[in-house]
Amino acid sequence: MNEKLDALITISEPRSPISEAYRTLRTNLDFASLEQALKTLVVTSAGMGERKSTTLANLAAVSAQAGRQVVLVDADLRRPTLHQIFGLDNEVGLTSVMMDEALSASPPLQDTAVEGLSVLTSGPLPPNPAELMGSRRMQEVIAALAEQADQVFFDTPPVVAVTDAAVLATKVDGVLLVISAGKTRREYVRTAVQRLEQINARLVGTVLTNVQMGVGFQGYY
Question: C-alpha distances in angstroms, 162 versus 7, 45, 56, 79, 137?
Fold first, then answer.
């Protein structure tokens, strides 16, 4: 498996401060699920270029490293990137399952270098991503994947740019919002939170990327 280890720092540098931060994120999500299940999770961002997909890929990796069966789904049917991050084929994927009900029992999951972590790539891009996200068929696919894994994570487009993430957020247990320090505009963050609140999505937290760590923090780890 030829993975981009520069993006998957939790694999290439498991003892680094950044990898430890991902494990802390995993623990925080575990605490968020104590009173209400958090088996299916949408990860989105306020805007473009906030390292949303990279963040999700590393979160999925550390979750699998904890001994869980994790399915990572590329539900960004506009600019999918998970197949590139993991070096996987993208001829079949989520859209293939959406179109062929027979694939629900045995979806085209692809193994990764991380034991317990499999990826369902986007598959061929459709002309109507938002409609697919809101369909009854999507609900069935989510249920089928949840039966096969301990956790199912969905990568989606930025919630401010298009409606895909908001639509899918109504069908899962929670939403994680990725924000880039020094890049994401405050009004975009406010708009993102407002859109999620309007549909009664369960926003379990935010992840701040592109943070410059102090020397003291790096020395501690």
Answer: 25, 11, 19, 12, 20
Contact of 88 with 94, CB cutoff 8 Å? no
| Residue matched to tokens 């869980």 | 68
- Amino acid type, 92: V
Residue 212 gets which letter from DSSP?
P
Q: What is the CA radius of gyration of the chain?
A: 16
* Strand, helix or coil for residue 214: coil
Residues with pLDDT less than 50, the chain? 1-3, 5, 215-221
pTM of this structure: 0.90
Contact by Cβ (8 Å): 183, 50:
yes
Distance between CA atoms of residues 68 and 42, nearest Å: 18
Q: 73: closest CA among 158, 146, 170?
A: 146
